[in-house]
TrEMBL record:
Family statement: Belongs to the DNA polymerase type-Y family.
Organism: Pseudoalteromonas aurantia
SUPFAM superfamilies named in the record: DNA/RNA polymerases
Ranges for domain UmuC: 2-188
Protein name: DNA polymerase V subunit UmuC
Amino acid sequence: MYALVDATSFYASAEKVFDPTIRKKPVVVLSNNDGCIVAASPEAKNLGFPKFEPYFKLKHVLNKHGVVIRSSNYELYADLSEKMMNTINQFSDQSYVYSIDESFLKFDGYASIVDSWYNYGHLIRRTVWRRTKLPVGVGFGPTPTLAKAANHAAKKFTDATGVAVIHDEVTRQEVLSRMDVSNVWGIGRRLTKKLALMGINTALDLAQQSPKHMRRQFSVVLERTVEELNGHQCLEWDQVKQRKKEIYSTRSFGERVTDPSALKAALVTHCSIIAKKLRQQHSLTKRIIVFAHSSPHEDGFFKKSFIQSFPVASSDSTVLAKAVEQIFDSLFKPGVKYYKAGVGAIELEDDNFQQADMFNGSQDKPQLMKVMDQINKRYGTTAARLGSEVQSTGWTMKREYLSPRYTTRWADIPTIKC
């Protein structure tokens, strides 16, 4: 048996954890620079506010309905996600974190331990709520795809209770018949339209197709989906997450940037971000790409990028930052109103199998980076930074409605008055 546990409207729910005054109010969370709505609580969805709509278009209506607005608080979300996953993983000896708010569990040999999967699901929900105050849905099924379908039923069906179990042919057909094919795991918009032309509108319609025919018409991926919907396991999650082959850090600015110090500070910050991600997955980069450009919607569009190579692959923030220093004068053009900038690590190596260079030694300082990572893990992501990161704050992202970072910033620790 498999289970998929995920949070309900995770970003919006996370905003309510430390602020009980808004727990019953509609909440929407905005994207970078407060651009679009990226998350909405169930209360906000019931009012009809769609995701991915520009905030400025809906600002007046949101205010009229008393909707609480929040900027994306990534530090808070990451910390709450870790707490939620640690809690969920206690319910099975095999788990796989699928995304920031979703985790698969696998149960081998649990039949003699668990009397009722339905009750077990509610135990998971209660435990996660008690420890994190995050509402979750739990779906059980004999395959990962059916567990995902059950999770959809647990949260979206009109008679949903937060837990759903597909454990026999009756429950399988009932759930799949009530489920639109677009909600099947891995079925996107284009594929949904093509399947509709074939008269395949529900998940049950798809499950009743010939797997081989679906493979010929579409792909082996859809063939496996059909098999999984019929209870035949074809998908396996990775025991160890695959390392990324490229790592990017990019962001548009809260306001147009014309100051060279501000642009350089932004690029160095991106270097620190990708260097940290490299260290987390035990990788090194042989080359980075550095770019900056103005808005393509404004006159005089300007874009420039450089690829910088390293004699010895690196994951040291200072080494990557030094590379930015070397090419910055060629990248920056006075008078340009920069809209976006970023850095990408594009040629990665495993740090356990590094190709040494006879004539060039590594410039990395692993002990220094280890200490910096430990400080930032304990005291917040920006507790220890490179000096060139903070030489200017004129480039920073606009987050006008940012809530306190309750768990990662000393000044924002909740105060309890008795």
